[in-house]
């Protein structure tokens, strides 16, 4: 039986928005991923900052540290409810990222510190071997009115800094230090 709700009292359910692209594990692939993700965020009416910085760091890390010649990495964006999730899936599952103590004179090692500073939460999800997914989530603010799409009225919500909420371990894969896979990260892509 088909029922249609009519009138202003009917609740509007927002669809899950997603974007996914395979990219070469090169600096050119990481740059293309950042540009495509930025354009996708713009088309969804979402602010670019700090999501563009997180995309840049995750894509660069996947292309640099998760590089296996001949195997692409996947960049994915999801908007589910009030959360933007950014994922980079590579085929170097045995090399798990960790926060570094990158000093000011070091050329690299500060990328995940930036992700941790900007993201509401972030983590690593092991995939079917040899994959892993590094992800970060940002909470979205609802615009005060329909035309407010950026700036203070419709930006990304940043929770107060402090202790991150620890994720519960997935019952089938309890691994310390890794967060559980989400229901939408279990697809076999690469």
Written as H for each helix and E for each strand, in order along the chain, the element string is: EHHEEHEEE
Please, what is the average pLDDT? 76
Q: Report helical residue fraction.
A: 10-25%
Q: N- to C-terminal separation?
A: 39 Å
Question: Which residues sit in consecutive blocks of at least 5 with pLDDT less than 50?
Answer: 145-154, 157-166, 168-190
Which range does the strand content fall in?
15-25%
Q: Which sheet architecture does the biggest sheet show?
A: 6 strands, antiparallel
Radius of gyration: 18 Å
Description:
The protein has 3 helices and 6 strands, in the order βααββαβββ. With 190 residues, it is of the alpha+beta class. Helix 1 (27-43) packs antiparallel against helix 2 (51-64) and helix 2 (51-64) runs antiparallel to helix 3 (111-118). The longest helix is centred in the N-terminal third of the chain and has 17 residues, at 27-43.
Structure keywords:
190 residues; alpha+beta; 21% helix
Question: Layout of helices and strands, plus pairs?
Answer:
Layout (H helix, E strand, L loop, with lengths): L16 E7 L3 H17 L7 H14 L8 E8 L2 E8 L20 H8 L2 E6 L5 E9 L15 E2 L33
Antiparallel strand pairs: 1-2, 2-3, 3-5, 4-5, 5-6
What is the compact description of this entry?
With 190 residues, the protein is α+β, with helices and mostly antiparallel strands.
């Amino acid at each position: 039986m088909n029922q249609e709700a009519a009138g202003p009292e009917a609740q509007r359910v927002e669809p899950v928005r997603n974007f996914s692209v395979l990219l070469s594990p090169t600096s050119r692939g990481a740059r293309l991923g950042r540009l495509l993700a930025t354009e996708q965020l713009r088309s969804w009416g979402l602010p670019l900052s700090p999501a563009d910085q997180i995309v840049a760091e995750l894509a660069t890390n996947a292309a640099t540290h998760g590089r296996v010649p001949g195997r692409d990495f996947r960049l994915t964006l999801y908007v589910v409810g009030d959360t933007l999730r950014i994922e980079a899936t590579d085929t170097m599952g045995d090399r798990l990222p960790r926060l570094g103590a990158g000093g000011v004179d070091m050329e690299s090692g500060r990328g995940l510190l930036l992700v941790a500073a900007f993201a509401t939460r972030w983590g690593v999800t092991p995939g079917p071997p040899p994959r892993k997914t590094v992800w970060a989530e940002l909470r979205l603010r609802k615009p005060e009115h329909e035309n407010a799409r950026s700036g203070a009225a419709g930006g990304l919500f940043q929770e107060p800094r402090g202790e991150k909420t620890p994720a519960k371990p997935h019952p089938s894969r309890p691994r310390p230090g890794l967060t559980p896979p989400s229901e939408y990260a279990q697809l076999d892509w690469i």
